[in-house]
């Protein structure tokens, strides 16, 4: 996603466009969850962080001032929430106490690390671009026109010389595809080592 | 230490003692930590674009949350629009009459503002008189958009903590279950979930007067709780600790010899999860313990360690056995 495109999405969200928001959600929620889970090491907590971020994004959409790209902004929100959680010494009434505290401490430092943050932020945005690139051709055109350039369905239909119905079905397909397609990266991205 | 071992640790492939060893090694120097930071970030990135989250499910949850909020806003706007219309109608229609104002107030009073919290989400509310209310999860508070001259009256189902702004001319009354709680200016907690066996008021500061249709008013002292069973004509009073009084507000759940079923009900409200009791003996189990700002995963672990209650996390339900 180019910066201009990403900014269009932000612009639409600011206007209260729920579809634009849904796109953002589908594009980023999974990977933000991966980050939160990796550092917090708790599924429920990670899910809560992601949900909170999007709720606050939507609630404060009118006052958003986002410099740079959306991924960078969302990453910073996840990072800050996670750091807040890891910083808080939570009381655990169990033997796992010390181990958990130590783990939180090293993960706090790991998430604070500038270079690590840079890597996470870069990759977050890159992976979204890749997912978009993998969409089937017409689907991609429709997706980019509507979501990124901010055209409504009718304008998109006119510009691509297809019916509004077709635009709608392509959009549904695109969002579904984005989700399913993410699996393909499994093969492209081998684990470390 | 080999990178491989650290990666194994990150992937959670190590036994407990090895795990601890790696963690201590990482924490032992800046250089080690740095190495871990990088490997951890790399491993995190490798998890990108692999479906880990049911996006559809949590998106629909967001939509529900948003819809409720919007409905509330629309309701509020509608209420004020209706109120203004009624006000104008009365002013125009009954200009010569002297008791116009009372009618208007009565009409407005019927339109109550209603704040509802779903499971898992609590909320702070400021009432028209600047009284501060923290509404616990799965609760409902009704109050008029404007308090009329002689009384401040609110209706509660569920649980809420009140910090009432002092105003001696305007008594503040909470109706909850069978209980009426009358205060001037003070902080107190009221709990009255429909599943609970009683309604309970706990005073933190100041004074309150608790009564019901069948019970004469009783004054509470700070850190006393008054409990009224449904249909009963007598209040039970007991002393509580400050911590017990408003624990939920600080994210704590405190249980003292509480039947497991009741504990689970509280957990369901707080974490928006569903429990299932998979073995009959658990119905008799009394739980004592404190969950201090734990996540549901941690709560389950504590249950397992402290009470040897096992659990299985399914898609919809958590089964205890």
Automatic annotation (TrEMBL), chain A:
Q: Which InterPro entries match?
A: RNA_pol_sigma-70-like, RNA_pol_sigma-70_dom, RNA_pol_sigma70_bacteroid, RNA_pol_sigma70_r2, RNA_pol_sigma70_r4_t2, RNA_pol_sigma_r2, RNA_pol_sigma_r3/r4-like, WH-like_DNA-bd_sf
* SUPFAM superfamilies the record matches: Sigma2 domain of RNA polymerase sigma factors, Sigma3 and sigma4 domains of RNA polymerase sigma factors
Q: Can the keyword Transcription be found in this entry's annotation?
A: yes
Keywords for this entry? Sigma factor, Transcription, Transcription regulation
Phylogenetic classification of the source organism = Bacteria, Pseudomonadati, Bacteroidota, Flavobacteriia, Flavobacteriales
Signal peptide range equals none
Any idea where the RNA polymerase sigma-70 region domain is?
Answer: 24-89
Q: Which residues form the RNA polymerase sigma factor 70 region 4 type domain?
A: 127-178
UniProt GO MF annotations: DNA binding; sigma factor activity
Q: Which domain of life is it from?
A: Bacteria
Family matches, as Pfam families? Sigma70_r2, Sigma70_r4_2
Family statement: Belongs to the sigma-70 factor family. ECF subfamily.
The identity of this protein, by name, is RNA polymerase sigma-70 factor
Its BP terms in the Gene Ontology are: DNA-templated transcription initiation
UniProtKB/TrEMBL annotation, chain B:
GO molecular function terms here? sigma factor antagonist activity
Name the source's superkingdom. Answer: Bacteria
Give the residue spans that cross the bilayer.
74-92
Supply the Pfam families for this chain: FecR, FecR_C
Q: Where is the Protein FecR C-terminal domain?
A: 252-319
Q: Which residues form the FecR protein domain?
A: 115-209
Keyword presence, Transmembrane = yes
What this protein is called in its record is DUF4974 domain-containing protein
Source organism lineage?
Bacteria, Pseudomonadati, Bacteroidota, Flavobacteriia, Flavobacteriales
């Amino acid at each position: 996603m180019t910066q201009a495109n990403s900014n269009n999405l932000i612009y639409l969200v600011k206007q209260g466009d729920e579809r634009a928001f849904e796109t953002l959600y589908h594009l980023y929620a999974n990977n933000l969850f991966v980050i939160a889970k990796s550092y917090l090491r708790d599924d429920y907590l990670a899910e809560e962080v992601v949900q909170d971020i999007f709720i606050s994004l939507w609630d404060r959409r009118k006052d958003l001032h986002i410099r740079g790209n959306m991924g960078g902004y969302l990453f910073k929100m996840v990072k800050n929430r996670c750091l807040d959680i890891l910083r808080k010494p939570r009381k655990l009434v169990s033997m796992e106490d010390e181990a958990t505290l130590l783990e939180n401490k090293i993960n706090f430092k790991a998430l604070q690390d500038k270079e690590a943050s840079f890597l996470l932020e870069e990759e977050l945005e890159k992976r979204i671009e890749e997912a978009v690139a993998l969409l089937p051709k017409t689907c991609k055109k429709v997706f980019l026109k509507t979501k990124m350039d901010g055209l409504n369905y009718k304008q998109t239909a006119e510009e691509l010389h297809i019916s509004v119905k077709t635009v709608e079905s392509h959009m549904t397909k695109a969002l579904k595809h984005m989700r399913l397609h993410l699996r393909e990266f499994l093969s492209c991205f081998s684990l470390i080592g | 230490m080999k990178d491989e071992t650290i990666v194994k640790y990150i992937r959670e492939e190590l036994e407990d003692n090895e795990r601890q060893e790696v963690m201590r090694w990482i924490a032992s120097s800046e250089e080690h930590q740095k190495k871990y930071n990088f490997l951890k970030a790399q491993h995190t990135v490798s998890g990108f674009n692999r479906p880990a989250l049911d996006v559809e499910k949590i998106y629909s949850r967001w939509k529900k949350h948003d819809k409720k909020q919007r409905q509330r806003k629309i309701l509020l706007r509608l209420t004020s629009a209706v109120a203004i219309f009624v006000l104008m109608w009365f002013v125009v229609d009954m200009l010569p009459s002297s008791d116009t104002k009372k009618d208007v107030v009565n009409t407005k009073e019927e339109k109550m503002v209603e704040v509802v919290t779903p499971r898992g989400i609590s909320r702070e509310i400021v009432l028209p008189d600047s009284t501060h209310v923290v509404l616990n999860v799965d609760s409902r508070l009704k109050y008029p958009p404007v308090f009329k001259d002689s009384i401040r009256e609110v209706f509660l189902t569920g649980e809420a903590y009140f910090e009432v702004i002092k105003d001696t001319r305007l008594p503040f009354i909470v109706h909850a279950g069978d209980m009426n709680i009358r205060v001037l200016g003070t902080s107190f907690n009221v709990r009255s979930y429909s599943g609970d066996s009683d309604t309970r008021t706990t005073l933190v500061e100041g004074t309150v007067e608790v009564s019901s249709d069948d019970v004469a008013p009783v004054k509470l002292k700070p850190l006393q709780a008054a409990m009224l069973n449904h249909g009963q004509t007598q209040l039970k009073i007991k002393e509580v600790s400050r911590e017990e009084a408003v624990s939920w507000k600080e994210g704590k759940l405190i249980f003292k010899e509480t039947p497991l079923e009741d504990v689970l009900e509280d957990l369901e409200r707080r974490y928006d999860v569903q429990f299932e009791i998979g073995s009959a003996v658990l119905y008799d189990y009394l739980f004592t313990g404190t969950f201090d700002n734990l996540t549901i995963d941690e709560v389950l672990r504590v249950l397992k360690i402290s009470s040897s209650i096992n659990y299985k996390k399914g898609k919809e339900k958590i089964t205890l056995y």
